[in-house]
Design goal:
The structure holds three protein chains of three kinds. In chain A, 79% of the residues lie in helices and 0% in strands. Chain A contains eight helices and no strands. In chain A, helix 1 runs antiparallel to helix 2 and helix 7 runs antiparallel to helix 8. Chain A is flat and about 75 Å long. Chain C is mainly α. In chain C, 80% of the residues lie in helices and 0% in strands. The N and C termini of chain C lie far apart (46 Å). The mean pLDDT of chain C is 93. The chains are: A mainly alpha, B alpha/beta, C mainly alpha. Chains in contact: A-C, B-C. At the A-C interface, helix 2, helix 3, helix 7 and helix 8 of A face helix 2, helix 3, helix 4, helix 6 and helix 7 of C.
Chain lengths: 229, 239, 225
């Protein structure tokens, strides 16, 4: 198509919303995968023996030290060549983002699990609860609640980072905007619209996270002025 | 002078003066507005109306540079408020150096003199506040005020965050200052200090000066009911 | 294929990556400091502008910001300088600085706000001006409190500078991708690159830990075992 082609606002919005839908789907699947992996890693780190703890820390440290883009390249290019297992781009995107998020989620849950006071655990043992029962009925319900604000912040980060999946061919919001820019030659208009859509998704979440952090977050694990990762 | 926080009147028509070389002590139940009064004097809190005359200058007038006034009024806080990132000496130096613009050597000389005046142990000079006892911290805070060579020092319950033994160290220093005729306005619950160091004692109640007089007069023969019951409660506590 | 050639290419890329990280961090610090001061200690229009900027940057993906600067900004400049060509490395660096500034501003604000009010009261009582208080009391303490977030930010920039690849900036990821397509050693090259990032992230973390220990003051910061 020729540079400078006019696109009606309706058509453009339709394309951007299509992209936003992919952004949401990708981010939701990734954060869930991250939760399913991250929570057990956090439990391993707090309750596991020396070996388990070391393995969990290695997993966390590795995924936190590598750019998502490099994780994608390894999953999308290196893995098929080394193992013969090739994933479709969509699942490669979910797994890359989900695994990366699991490393950060494990850190969030580790700190809230540790924040549940020793008194709570002593009280549970005094009632005759086992270690596992204490974890399930006493520690996790409190830790999960305290983790909500930080977890929402993590979701916002995942949501924004879905844009990086365009590097392996996923057509999400930023990619759609890029396409519109390439056919119209109007970067401010279409990147601006995309930015607006991101803000619509992100801002309510950050404010909610901030409000919840004030209510039952613990210091350093949530809120709008929290450290990014 | 008057001060309101929202609907609550904290200070309601308070009037008194402190002369050069005088030690005046304010006592009274908590919430009586004593702390607020001190903070109004150097305008950490803005009073709503009234006037504060310091060395002939109206502190509340708009064309006064309040920082110049503050540099001449020492303030000693209940929780010491030493600068956490500075050692004892540096805490005392910073005023002369940063506010008065003195040279490093001159500021150091003044600081050491001030720290000696409050009898701080030499090995504590280079320590950070977190490494000092509460009594040491408060003495450094007094030295910090002294180093500015202020015309008056305001004390806001300087010993109420300390256990009795450490409070003693601080009160000894304050008594010494009173003997040396340093002008002081002291809010405290230490009746003993009021008895033997104050020139006059003011009893604050409900944002007013409820009763005032010579220490012996007011503390041994209070006239008003509220003063009596306050003093009785203090005496009960210290038994 | 020759691994010497591959490593040489990657080393060139690494140099650009480190430049983007370090300069991006420093530029982000300078602008972030102003934003933090505006948001914490000013009012009215300058505070509102600082808040809007910070929320806008933090609410959108860095990649989108890089695209706007890489593809939008040159058009704007060409209105005045018709022959202007944007160097992609400069565009990426600008984008990284502008992005980091918003996050660093928030870390600084958090640190400023964590300074107890008694510290400010004591400084006011000595007769200090606002700027003297910021310089002699707030900043020396905030700086120490903030160090761990700075470490995070540096590691973050090291990793996210890889997005500059998508503007064709010859940084580590970009050099890896062109070298991979020349040599067909995709598997090996991307694993090596992942390792390089990991090593440098670890170096940053260890180095900053030494700095933390070095400037630790009891009562201001706590040192974790």
């Amino acid at each position: 198509m020729l540079m400078g082609t006019a696109v009606s606002l309706n058509v453009a919005m339709g394309m951007l919303l299509e992209g936003a839908k992919m952004t949401v789907v990708l981010s939701v699947l990734s954060i869930i995968l991250g939760l399913l992996v991250g929570l057990p890693v956090a439990i391993m780190e707090t309750y596991g023996g020396k070996v388990l703890r070391y393995m969990a820390m290695l997993y966390e440290g590795t995924l936190r030290g590598i750019p998502l883009l490099a994780i994608y390249m390894v999953i999308f290019f290196s893995m098929p060549l080394l193992t013969g297992i090739g994933l479709p781009a969509f699942w490669a995107a979910v797994i890359g983002l989900g695994m990366r998020s699991s490393a950060y989620q494990s850190q969030i849950f580790r700190s809230t699990i540790q924040a549940v006071g020793a008194g709570q655990i002593e009280a549970a043992y005094s009632l005759g609860m086992s270690k596992l029962e204490t974890l399930r009925h006493i520690v996790l319900p409190q830790a999960m609640r305290m983790a909500v604000p930080a977890w929402m912040n993590e979701y916002v980060i995942v949501l924004k980072d879905t844009s990086i999946a365009l590097a392996i061919g996923i057509v999400e919001l930023t990619r759609q905007a890029q396409y519109l820019v390439s056919i119209t030659g109007e970067p401010f208009r279409y990147y601006g619209l995309a930015a607006f859509l991101y803000l619509v998704m992100v801002l309510p979440l950050t404010y909610l996270a901030g409000a919840l952090a004030k209510k039952y977050g613990i210091k350093g694990t949530g809120g709008t002025s929290n450290v990014r990762i | 002078m008057k001060k309101k926080f929202g609907e609550k009147t904290v200070l309601e028509g308070v009037s008194f003066s402190v002369k050069m070389g005088e030690t005046k002590v304010i006592i009274g139940p908590s919430g009586a507005g004593k702390s607020t009064l001190l903070r109004c004097i150097n305008r950490l809190v803005e009073p709503d109306e009234g006037e504060i005359i310091f060395d002939g200058i109206n502190v509340l007038s708009k064309d006064v540079d309040i920082r110049k006034i503050r540099a001449r009024i020492g303030f000693v806080f209940q929780h010491f408020n030493l600068f956490k990132h500075l050692t004892a000496v540096e805490n005392v130096k910073i005023g002369p150096k940063v506010v008065k613009g003195l040279s490093d050597e001159e500021a150091e000389r003044i600081a050491i003199k001030a720290l000696k005046a409050v009898h701080l142990e030499e090995d504590a000079f280079e320590k950070y506040p977190a490494e000092l006892s509460g009594g040491q911290q408060q003495r450094v805070a007094i030295a910090r005020a002294l180093a500015m060579e202020p015309d008056i020092i305001l004390f806001d319950e300087p010993t109420s965050a300390l256990d009795p033994q450490l409070a003693g160290e601080v009160l000894d220093v304050m008594r010494e200052l009173a003997r040396k005729k340093v002008t002081m306005l002291v809010v405290t619950h230490e009746i003993g200090f009021a008895l033997n160091a104050a020139d006059e004692v003011l009893f604050f109640y409900n944002g007013r000066i409820w009763e005032r007089g010579e220490p012996r007069e007011l503390l041994y023969k209070p006239k008003r009911e509220e003063t009596k019951s306050f003093l009785k409660r203090i005496a009960d506590l210290s038994l | 294929m020759d691994y010497g050639f591959i490593l040489g290419q990657l080393a060139k890329g690494l140099e650009v990556t480190l430049e983007l990280t370090i300069l991006g961090f420093l530029g982000g610090f300078a602008l972030g400091f102003l934003l933090a001061i505006a948001r914490t200690y000013s009012g009215g229009i300058s505070k509102a502008l600082a808040v809007a900027y910070i929320e806008l940057i933090r609410g959108t993906p860095m990649l989108l910001q890089l695209y706007i600067i890489g593809f939008g900004l040159p058009l704007l400049i060409r209105e005045y300088l018709p022959n202007f060509v944007m160097n992609p490395t400069i565009a990426a660096l600008l984008g990284i600085m502008l992005n980091s500034a918003a996050y660093q501003a928030e870390y600084m604000r958090g640190a400023f706000n964590s300074i107890e009010s008694g510290q400010i009261e004591a400084a006011l009582s000595l007769g200090m001006t606002k700027w003297k208080i910021i310089r002699h009391v707030v900043f020396p303490q905030a700086f120490r409190i903030m160090l761990p977030s700075w470490t995070n930010e540096m590691v973050y920039l090291l990793k996210y500078s890889s997005l500059a690849m998508l503007l064709a900036v010859p940084e580590l990821m970009y050099m890896a991708s062109i070298t991979a397509s020349e040599t067909f050693l995709y598997a090996q090259i991307y694993l090596i690159v992942a390792g390089i990032y990991l090593v440098f992230a670890t170096l940053i973390i260890q180095f900053m830990r030494l700095v933390e220990l070095k400037i630790h003051i009891p009562g201001v910061t706590t040192i974790k075992r």
